[in-house]
Write a structure and sequence with these properties.
Layout lengths: L13 E2 L3 H14 L14 H11 L8 H8 L3 H13 L3 E5 L13 E6 L1 H7 L2 E3 L10 E4 L5 H12 L34 H6 L19 H15 L8 H7 L1 H5 L4 H8 L13 H8 L3 H4 L3 H23 L11 H35 L3 H13 L2 H10 L1 H8 L1 H15 L4
Antiparallel strand pairs: 1-3, 2-3, 4-5
Helix pairs in contact: 1-2, 1-6, 2-4, 3-4, 8-9, 11-14, 17-18, 18-19
Length: 424
């Protein structure tokens, strides 16, 4: 039945004279195969539909609430609504009045009439009469075809039988305890051997082995957050940064397999910022890691970078001790001068290598920018010359001139000089 024919005034069926005859019509619709639910999703006609019809047939006035039916059947309210829709579409229920669902007001349940559909009367040859002045929906049966008496008898037996909820097959009942029996246990535990065999050592009781838990492997997102937490804990100027934001910034190096030491070695090329100067640690980190994957694109390059970083840290500690430390150092003046000359050569070589690597990183970062990105950076510098000053402070004047052009850098420096000059 379409929605327009699901009302008492528009239905083609008749009101059932008793709940017993209505359940006969319900079982006939279930076995006839004439009804197909209009919904492609949701539950289908089955045991829950019959149980819902039994609850409706037991009501003196068919005006149930959805919550009441859900409690009685042990299902969700949405399931009850699905099956009520199927009973209306099958022509077995019709609205006398539709309930209200107004928020903040008293909700009213829908009032139904139990309907016997017209195809049921036609299929079984049921004859009906209509009282004078009564509506067509109140027709009363007066006879049935002879060949349909066997069918109506079978439907009567189904209507008299109470359909109950079937127990799930997955549930198992507890096995009762057995006393004084030698049969093997059915609870799943191994039987204990007799004491005679235990004394002679003929049989060992097997011990249950606990399965070993496998080590949890991080996925790509987890590796990013792990690297971010390690950097925040080990890099001093990243302390106030957000872990999620740092994980997004280091996504490229984390996906490339960089470790925390390799990232720290690459960050050391730019030098340690002064305390309090890194107002936006995440922005400084993004600037320094730009082009890092392209510059150190192999594991060998990253390994050499880490070795150089660790050697520079070691040389810094050794140089700070001087020659008059606890171990004494060379006693002769000529030996001291030779050692000082060797140390100065090593430090100058390290400084030159660091400058070459830093220049290569800046060049790789500039080469990674497209023409539109350069135009956008220069447009931002025209609006706010302070961007150029920040770039000079973080990356140097050469980098700023290659990115923003000499003209914009000179204008920004002149404007900064005029603003900071004393007025007297």
């Amino acid at each position: 039945m379409v929605a327009a024919h699901q009302w008492v005034g528009t239905t083609a069926g008749r009101i059932a004279t008793c709940p017993y005859s209505w359940m006969q019509a319900v079982h006939w619709v279930a076995g006839s195969g004439l009804y197909t639910p209009s919904r492609l999703h949701g539950p289908k006609w089955g045991e829950t539909t019959i149980r819902l019809a039994q609850e409706l047939s037991a009501l003196t006035e068919c005006r149930p609430g959805v919550a009441y039916l859900a409690r009685k059947l042990g299902v969700s309210e949405r399931t009850v609504q699905y099956h009520l829709d199927m009973l209306r579409e099958a022509g077995l229920l019709a609205y006398r009045s539709k309930g209200t669902r107004l928020t903040g007001a008293l909700r009213q349940a829908s009032h139904y009439e139990r309907i016997i559909p017209a195809p049921f009367d036609v299929a079984l040859g049921i004859r009906t009469v209509l009282a004078d002045g009564a509506p067509a929906v109140e027709r009363r049966p007066v006879g049935i075809a002879q060949e349909s008496r066997g069918v109506i008898a079978k439907l009567a037996r189904k209507a008299a039988r109470k359909v109950r909820r079937t127990r799930s097959r997955g549930r198992k009942r507890c096995t009762p305890m057995q006393v004084g029996t030698s049969s093997p246990s059915t609870t799943g535990t191994p039987p204990f051997p007799p004491e005679s065999k235990l004394e002679g050592g003929e049989q060992d009781v097997p011990t249950e082995k606990k399965p070993q838990k496998k080590a949890r492997r991080l996925n790509r997102i987890g590796r990013r957050h792990q690297l971010a937490r390690e950097l925040i804990s080990e890099v001093s100027w990243l302390g106030p940064a957000s872990s999620a934001r740092i994980a997004w910034i280091v996504r490229d190096v984390a996906d490339a397999g960089w470790s925390c030491h390799e990232v720290r070695a690459f960050l050391s090329l730019g030098g340690e910022p002064e305390p309090g100067t890194a107002r936006r640690p995440s922005g400084l980190l993004a600037h320094r890691l730009k082009g890092a994957v392209q510059l150190w694109d192999t594991a060998d390059k990253r390994h050499r970078g880490v070795q150089g970083w660790q050697d520079s840290l070691l040389s810094r500690k050794t140089t700070g001790r001087g020659f008059d430390s606890a171990w004494g150092g060379p006693a002769r003046v000529s030996a001291r001068s030779l050692l000082a000359e060797a140390v100065s050569r090593v430090r100058s070589a390290e400084h030159a290598a660091a400058e070459d690597i830093e220049a290569g990183a800046e060049l790789a970062a500039l080469e990674g920018l497209s023409r539109e990105d350069v135009i956008e950076h220069r447009a931002a510098a025209l609006k706010d010359p302070g961007v150029i000053l920040i770039a000079i402070e973080c990356a140097g004047a050469d980098y700023a001139r290659r990115l923003y052009s000499n003209r914009l850098v000179d204008q920004a420096l002149d404007a900064n000089t005029r603003s900071t000059a004393p007025a007297w």
